[in-house]
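Hello,

I think I submitted the zinc ion job twice by accident. Can you confirm which output corresponds to this input? Input:
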Amino acid sequence: MPLIIRIDVDRPYGKRPAVRHLMSRLSSDLYLPKVEAFGYLAELQTMLHWLNEAEARAYAFFRRCTLPSPAVMRLFDAGRHQAGLHLEDSRSYETFCSEIQIMERHFDRKMLAVSKHGSGGAKYGFHHHAPYEPEKYIAWARKASLRLFLGNLEDPTLPAVQSDDLVTYPSAFWLEPHWRDTQRYNVDWLIEQAQRQDIVLLVHPENVLGDPTLITDFKRLIRTVESKVLA
Ligand SMILES: [Zn+2]
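Support: Only one job matched these inputs. Its output is below.
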């Protein structure tokens, strides 16, 4: 059984150095043009190179401030990856639909997958609605004929739920240890477990690229375990 690789693309310019961190913050709240000189989506581009070399396919979930530039789009298409909405403004079905529309216009194709930005804690930026309310997103996703919702729970053993045409994976194996019970669930466990059930591997490019151990883990996983996109 394969991995479902989920990349949440949270920051247009990553976190480092400080000037890129600031650019990420500003882009999240205001409109800023994509500035290649500051390394727009540089961390995602590196990950896409690794994935393409390993012939692994992934979902990448984008916010309105992290929409792919032409350079990212080329890598994305070359690896036949799938784009989804990383939902920020979850105040209502209308705000959900307007974010879907932004994605569909940018990609010129129907969106089939959604994940939520933030798990119910802090408010991240001007457009962000902080509560984490998966039942709502599942209902909205069905109404809008999406096929996949990937949830933010941290117990990676929770099984997928199929309801009509929509598949929900309530949880993920978060590669970044901050959100994982690392005693129970390590990379060896994941490689083992992925032989028995589909399992979602969740990563954030700026965190993985900032930690040599996570880079090693990520590369090992994409080379060892088969990955798939559903929709
Ligand atoms: Zn996020």
